[in-house]
Design goal:
Largest sheet: 6 strands, mixed
Distance between the termini: 48 Å
CATH topology of the largest domain: Conserved hypothetical protein from pyrococcus furiosus pfu- 392566-001, ParB domain
Number of strands: 8
Number of helices: 13
Radius of gyration: 24 Å
Shape: elongated
């Protein structure tokens, strides 16, 4: 499979190499037929669920035409119940089981745990098989489990560092918002807008209104701004409700947020105030440091 179609980082051949201990039945093409029950799923598969209807359609196609593109597998650990573990092609493997195939064509490769996660992630992004939270969780796993920076993750999947950072922030959403995003009731743009509300109850209230009224992303952003403004007004009531200091504070907060590219809370009074800048990884902290201190 070529990974240059969408510029998604390195291709399969760059990430993993052909094993030197190929089985005797391997053909010149590098493809070997392996019993279906000798193969197990990728434990690092970022995709959490498969569409049953799409899987059934693929099974019907495989039943009629066979598997055109071989799976890519690696040898399983000695203590495993199976002989091979899937690197890429889990949908084809599961569809082959539904179709009643006893064997599937596969290419055997050497791969580390990091390779397996990277390849599964790249393949799924190219096929648009991951929902935003699955993609975000995979990015986070690459950073937490293998020590990659946001730049390194971005390079591997062919995206910008900002895109990776924005994706990972989705993991900070409250559970109801995550569930709505996974179910497709709201888009990733809606979810990013709701990140502006730090209180889970506020997120839930906004979510219900967004779904009930069918808000666009822009309308959701405006709703969040109104809720934040209302909360600040409630904290500091005035006679006419149009405190010039509060209005100026909201404007400054928006400018800080745009300049720094992250969530910012600014509170002010006649005697001083507080500016809170949020970051969601050590990498983001480094970028904030360079942006603020580096320009000092």
């Amino acid at each position: 499979m070529s990974m240059s179609k969408r510029g998604l980082g390195r291709g399969l051949s760059a990430l993993i190499s052909v094993t030197s201990s190929a089985p005797s039945e391997m053909e010149d093409s590098g493809v070997v037929h392996i019993p279906v029950d000798a193969i197990g799923p990728n434990p690092h598969q970022p995709r959490q669920a498969l569409d049953p209807e799409a899987l059934a359609e693929l099974a019907a196609s495989i039943r009629e035409h066979g598997i055109i593109q071989p799976l890519i597998v690696t040898r399983a650990p000695l203590d495993s119940e199976v002989s091979y573990t899937i690197i890429a092609g889990e949908r084809r493997w599961r569809a082959a089981q539904l179709a009643g195939l006893e064997e599937v064509p596969a290419i055997i490769r050497e791969a580390t745990s990091q390779d397996m996660l990277e390849l599964a992630l790249v393949e799924n992004i190219q096929r648009a098989d991951l929902n935003p939270l699955e993609e975000a969780a995979a990015y986070r796993a690459l950073m937490d489990e293998f020590g990659l920076t946001q730049e390194q993750v971005a390079a591997k999947v062919g995206k910008s560092r900002v895109a990776v950072a924005n994706a990972v922030r989705l993991l900070n959403l409250s559970q109801p918002v995550k569930e709505a995003l996974s179910a497709g009731r709201i888009t990733e743009g809606h979810a990013r807008a709701l990140l502006g509300l730090s209180d889970e109850d506020d997120q839930m209230a906004a979510l219900e209104e967004v779904i009930r009224k069918g808000y666009t992303v822009r309308q959701t952003e405006e709703l969040v701004r109104r809720m934040l403004a209302t909360a600040k007004t409630a904290e500091k009531p005035t006679d006419d409700g149009e405190d010039p200091l509060a209005m100026e504070t909201r404007a400054l907060e928006a400018q800080f947020r745009e300049a720094l590219g992250t969530k910012v809370n600014l509170s002010r009074s006649r005697r001083g105030g507080r500016l809170v800048i949020y970051f969601y990884s050590e990498e983001e902290l480094q970028h904030l440091y360079e942006r603020i201190v580096g320009n000092a």
